[in-house]
Amino acid sequence: MKKANTVKSFTITKYLKKYAGWITLYIGLFIISTICSILTPIFVANAIEDITMASYSSAIYTFLILMAIALLDYCIVIFLNYIYNRYGMRMIGDMSLDCVAQSFKISSMSYSNHSSGQFMQRIVNDPNRIIQDLMSIINYISSLTSTFVIIIYVVILNWIIGLCVVGLIVVSIIIDLIRLKIFSKNEKNAFSSEDELVAIVNETIKSEKDIKTSGLEKRLNDILNTKTNKYVGANYKLRNTNQTIRQLKNIFQELAIFAILILGVVLMEKSLVTIAVFMVIYSYRGSIKSFSTYFGNFGETITSIKTSLGRIRELFENNEYVIEKFGNVHLENVRGEIEFKDVTFKYKEYEFKKVDNEIAKTLKSEILVLKNLNFFIKPNTTVAFVGKSGSGKTTVLSLISKMLEADSGQVLIDGTDIKDLDKETLRKSISLVNQFPYIFDMSIKENLLLAKENATDDEIEKAVEDSYLKDFIDTLPNGIDTVVGESGIKLSGGQRQRLAIARALLRQTSIIIFDESTSSLDNFAQEHIKKCIDNLKGKSTIVIVAHRLSTIKNVDNIFFLENGKIVDEGSFDTLYKNNKEFKNMFTVENLQDELN
């Protein structure tokens, strides 16, 4: 017996532990670099004092030490860049791969309730932001430390000026804290608008042909314009508000620094400050101003990390993104028997809002699709579900493959409730060929090997022959090694379908599902698909959702669906003879074919 799957939270420590040695070395070198930064202003101050005191040989010696420190610091930076570029990128890759793996565990219904942009941002952009921000934090800590030492040094040099500098920094930090609070809220809105824009751009690119041939350019432009304006507006608010507050702080700091310099001149006049001390303060006035900037950047980066981590955690914590759940019953040899017992299913649409740092899930609407549905399919038989659009055909297939879960009743495979079966049993027993199968930007052979990594050449050749793909492949200059383009764009609809069927044949699953697989094909391509399906008869349980009734003449049984219920069943000839609605559907289909 296998353990049921559990939901794991997402933590950054997993990735830090994996590269702990390199991270420790990185931090150690950064500490040395920070010490160099701390020593530099002290030696510079000594050099300035030596020059004002005409101790030129001592000044030269000090500058040689500074040169050595600078050389060491530059060498350290080169190695730090190497560590980050090599192992930081690996951490980003590991994090993205884990997000992809987690996305496979998310229920199909959750995909329906969220845009593709939300997944893409969390898988690609957020891991990159997190690692880059972590490296930035180390930089800011180093800068804050070295700048803090300069401030302490100024306080030691003259307590009056030092007190003014401390006051300047305190006020600057208060301004930054106010800015960070506003920044956090605006950044979340900016991320949300980016998700929406990425989703619609992605969909637009993928559906480019449909948009052009259907004359939808203007409508899509309008939608893109709306989404872009929302994205631009959110980012404008984020950046403009952030930069405006920063500039107001800079104005305050600039005025304060000049006031401190004027105070220094007054104190020099009264012999309370030497020229050397004044020159040190003047030379490091930028560093004094930078302390609050580093502090603000540090806080901003922490906020950004928290936001990105929060967004990724949403994929893992089974709240907004519902994780698929499996049982612990494992079946070694699935026969392919399928049964529905009083199955009811409703499509639900949810609205998600953040309340008190938690995602609140509210049901917006629901549509009853299936109600108390019952049927039985014998192993190794071929059956079809027919009915008008919206009758529940595709929902039945999704419930069989556990892409959706019934609200009540039981979906049984070989007499076992599908909820009790483990993931391995389900995924290795069911293949799905849908209306628009996804073909990857690889060669035909590589696409086939996705279905069975260790498939032999003989197995591949047989799958290609049985799917009626061989004649087409033989016409290609590169044969089976021909790259088919993104989404199989270089293939016709029928060729994509046959390649998807070849993948299903390679898997040799007990149950094969065809969802509207011939609805968009011409008669010639449809005949090829029909032959492919006929070749499978008796070898697996074949379940077909048919739009074109001519493709299911040879099936063993047909279930006629209407409003989520089976209103009739039987062979093709039986339904054609006894069911008026079925006969009308077939007659209309033939008339359309003749007209075309």
Give an overview of the whole structure:
The protein has 596 residues and is of the alpha/beta class. The chain folds into 2 domains: 13-316, ABC transporter type 1, transmembrane domain (ABC transporter transmembrane region fold, Up-down Bundle); 369-595, Rossmann fold. Helices cover 62% and strands 13% of the residues. It has helices at residues 13-18, 20-52, 56-103, 108-112, 116-157, 159-206, 208-213, 217-269, 275-283, 285-316, 393-400, 423-429, 444-451, 457-466, 470-474, 493-507, 523-536, 572-578, 580-595, and strands at residues 338-355, 358-377, 382-386, 408-413, 416-417, 430-433, 511-515, 541-545, 557-562, 565-570. Strands 6-7-8-3-9-10 form a 6-stranded mixed β-sheet, sandwiched between helices. A 4-stranded antiparallel β-sheet has the order 2-1-4-5. Helix 13 packs parallel to helix 16 (493-507). The radius of gyration is 34 Å and the shape is elongated. The relative contact order is 0.08.
Main beta sheet strand tally, sense and closure: 6 strands, mixed
Mean pLDDT: 82
Given as residue ranges, the uncertain stretches (5+ residues, pLDDT < 50) are 1-7
Q: Note the overall shape.
A: elongated
How many DSSP helices?
A: 19
Strand content: 5-15%
Strand order within the widest beta sheet: 6-7-8-3-9-10
Tell me the distance between the termini. 56 Å
Find the structural class using helix and strand composition: alpha/beta
Q: What value does the Rg take, in angstroms?
A: 34 Å
CATH arch. level architecture of the largest domain: Up-down Bundle
**Count of strand segments:** 10
Which fold name fills CATH's third level, the topology of the largest domain? ABC transporter transmembrane region fold
Q: Quickly name the level 1 CATH class of the largest domain.
A: Mainly Alpha
